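So, could you explain this one?
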Amino acid sequence: MKNLFSKRTLTALALCLCMLFSVACGGKNGPSSDGDWWTSEGELVKDEQGNVVFDNVEVKLSTVVSGEDKTAFKALVAKFNRLYDGKINVITTNIGAEGFESTVSKQITNNSNPPDLIMSHQKANRNFADNKIIQPFDEVIEQSGIDIDPANFAAGLAQYSSAGYEGSLFAVPVDAQSIVVFYNKQLLAKYAQTPPSSRAELLSVCKAFTEDTANAGKAPIAWSTGGDYFAEYVFLTAVLQNGGKFYNDSDFKVAWNSDEANRTAFNNAIQSFRELIDKGYAKYNEADNTILSEFMAGKRLFYFTVPWTMESLVTNYADQLGVSVETLMSDYLGGVSMSGWFAMTDNEAKNNIYGDSHFFSMSRSVTDINKKAAICEFIRWFTQESSVGAEWAKAGHISASNIISADDEYKNDPYVSNYISKFFTSIDDFRSIGATPYYEAVISNLKGIFIDTVGSSKPSVSADEAAIKQRQDSVNAQIDFF
């Protein structure tokens, strides 16, 4: 029997259990309860225009950004520190996603060198708030006058800013990221006038590619199903595009097999991959370095990858072809959205794309009102300055800020206009895991369904549904336990 409790899941659930016992033994469950778990001390100094005056305020920032985008993030923080020299200094610590939430939670709970500012994935915010790890921004925003308004962010992400506590601002959305798709412009031009924007168009162009004798034995789609993010980002996208729902909003339990509509959605999501593989349009478990080489050699139409490799892909591809980056973007390498690509039927959710989103939140350990204001000023700068948004987009992250996304400097940046803006038909179609406190169990078992079904050597509908039910029961058993 398969072990459905991964080490990562058990670690996260054990941490949640410790926190639940802590809350049960006299803790407070939200700002609307019998008191607050944070305090504010000191007074703000303001100039004649009412702006806060900062004097050498140090802010410790812990961020989950730790991949190829780490260099870009550190460069942006360094830029902020130069602009605010003598006023605010942000010190960054990068922590890998595997242990980020447990590390930060322990530091804050034990008051052991805790961060002041946290940049985590959206999924962590609910547990952070429930377990009194973070505090709301409302008080300091009111006192400082620094404008951070959820209305200025993409609605699909801003809805999670309250972390489940309506009327409070616990987290500020920064960006969104999922698996992205590049395509070979010159190769695609042989088989279609425009990149596919629906399942039918995708199948049509892939059919034309494979029927060309020049492409004998080649698959038009290059993807690495064993990549760290593929099963999560792409399979969960397929579930959403077929009208599936990850969990019930009332009790957070899952009904992947027991609900008829959901069972159909999951079966369609599985078939959306199987059809592409069975027709020879894609393969299961190809090595990423192999498919990247073939894509850059002009042997594949589409290449699925993580967005934070974008800048290195563009520069390396341009070097290989011996052209400038500008020429590569205009003539050779395009970006396209996978919106609609996995929807087996026409439905209102067909353009949804699942992924992660970074959010800023403030540690409960911060008490100095001046430091709280400095944190807000950094967040305002990062989420409202168009040049910052453009640089962060180059590292693979579409801005969640309506202020940035509406600015011409951001829109006209070549990485934004050629790629980032093409990967999503609209950021309003972007979806993350939401406010469930059991996200680890949900995500790990959803990924498991992909491996158990699409990766199976003996596929069948009955085996698929048995796998879905087993994973469903595993999640609900964990929820019942807690």
Notes: The CA atoms of residues 326 and 479 lie 51 Å apart.
